[in-house]
Amino acid sequence: MKKLPVTVGVIGSGECSEELSSLAREVGREIARRGGILICGGLGGVMEAACEGAKEEGGLTIGILPGTSREDANPYVDIPIATGLGDARNVIIVRSSDVLIAVGGRWGTLSEIAFALKFGKPVVCLKGWDMLPDVQKALDPVDAVEKAWTLAAKS
Amino acid sequence: MKKLPVTVGVIGSGECSEELSSLAREVGREIARRGGILICGGLGGVMEAACEGAKEEGGLTIGILPGTSREDANPYVDIPIATGLGDARNVIIVRSSDVLIAVGGRWGTLSEIAFALKFGKPVVCLKGWDMLPDVQKALDPVDAVEKAWTLAAKS
Amino acid sequence: MKKLPVTVGVIGSGECSEELSSLAREVGREIARRGGILICGGLGGVMEAACEGAKEEGGLTIGILPGTSREDANPYVDIPIATGLGDARNVIIVRSSDVLIAVGGRWGTLSEIAFALKFGKPVVCLKGWDMLPDVQKALDPVDAVEKAWTLAAKS
Amino acid sequence: MKKLPVTVGVIGSGECSEELSSLAREVGREIARRGGILICGGLGGVMEAACEGAKEEGGLTIGILPGTSREDANPYVDIPIATGLGDARNVIIVRSSDVLIAVGGRWGTLSEIAFALKFGKPVVCLKGWDMLPDVQKALDPVDAVEKAWTLAAKS
Questions:
Q1: For chain B, what percent of residues have pLDDT higher than 90?
Q2: Residue environment code for D88-118, b if the CB has 16+ CB neighbours within 10 A, otherwise e
Q3: Of D62, D91, D119, which is closest to A79 when you measure between CB atoms?
Q4: Is the ipTM of this complex over 0.90?
Q5: What is the pLDDT of residue D1?
Q6: Which of A14, B138, D42, D49 is most exposed, with the fewest beta carbons within 10 Å of its own?
């Protein structure tokens, strides 16, 4: 079987502060620099910033959209997947990732972290939900991606 | 429009301790005594104990199953719904409840709590995830159901 | 294991002619007279007429809704299940039925017939898609329900 | 908004004859020659043959898998998406395509054709379900892809 590149789910809110946006962009850049594929929910905020960063470094980005139209994707998504499933699409993001990096995030992000841990996938938190048991806390974007790679290699 | 009875999602692990099982059974009894409909994931553990309690008091129970066969339902489910959607069925339990009561629970339960809070539905926690922000902590089964009714009336 | 009543999926368009509506109502009545549970998509047209008929005869009706609110259900649905999954909810109607009766219907109905035949569930067609291979053609509502019962008993 | 390449859903059975396999491979080649993206269910039979053809011509292939593991994808899928949703994933293939080409196919394929027509997406049939109303009948693989491009441009 061919070896797939590491696929990293980047999760976080569809609207976010400048600070989180800047962190997410750097996470996206670092994933692309390492040759990883970035998968996310395809919308704005953290998702858009991460995709933008990945594209700056020539990475590949996938957006798993809640709605029925691929045109809902942010402009940095290469492969938009329209599910029409609403929030149930969160499960698909998790199932299709080797490892997840949460950048801040609220309840939607928590649902994805919970599914990841249920499915035995490692989770790195940069801000946000980093007090949860069984997640890895990251100090900064480079640390987050480094930890994600180490965890993906082990699992 | 006709007024539906209060529908309470009871969430928790498919395998659980005697203590949690006993609490869940009492939660189910109390929901039925108040005329509520109990909805859950339809499997064992907390789900089965809650359904058993509800049936002891003549209540109605619905199980939203992850698999493709209605025969996976525990014997106390009146209305088994087979989804074939795996863990994505958690969203349906939440969407179809007025209020959720979590009895203990691990990651799957956390995903349901997260969806509930995302969708603006109140959550009462009996043990388990009661340290989360925005959930109501219950002291015992009767307190849990009482709080659920109060919150459902407001929302 | 307890024996569940026969669960019949009644499928058809959300808007329909008086003729189809009248046929669907009679299908619903006949299902209820035989003690079956009626499951459907929960909306208008054929779904509403079938539920209305079932309630006239004291039957139980379940509506698996595409949207996020149980209040979208027609007034004759006893148990509304809100999925938020859009048309993907069609799979759940089929998975949760022992046998399906299609009353007229267009593309959505065809998707349900196709899933039913894929899953090995019998399909009875009253008008509409009755030229398809592997479906049973019914002459009238009573014939449709009679055939459904016979097929459900065999499968 | 950036212009996405045409995305073509290629649908058909997971096991198929040499003849259909050969037709599907040529459909995949022709989609790639025109710069289209091929999306499919990611498994064997028609799906695998179409992906193999697309890769021979340097195309990009996406597989929307029913199971929970990306490793279920056939070896010619570039972007495997694991949904864990079973047959409900058919909706996602349709939602994410501009146009669909069915190569032979049985009930699963019919469910996808039905969803496509429900969602207003054009369908080209090469063998199989070409007697259905509202689908375009193709004479051979090149004709199928040509018709798909014409229809996608109009819709």
A1: 95
A2: bbbbbbbbbbbbbbbbbbbbbbbbbbbbbbb
A3: D62
A4: yes
A5: 44
A6: A14
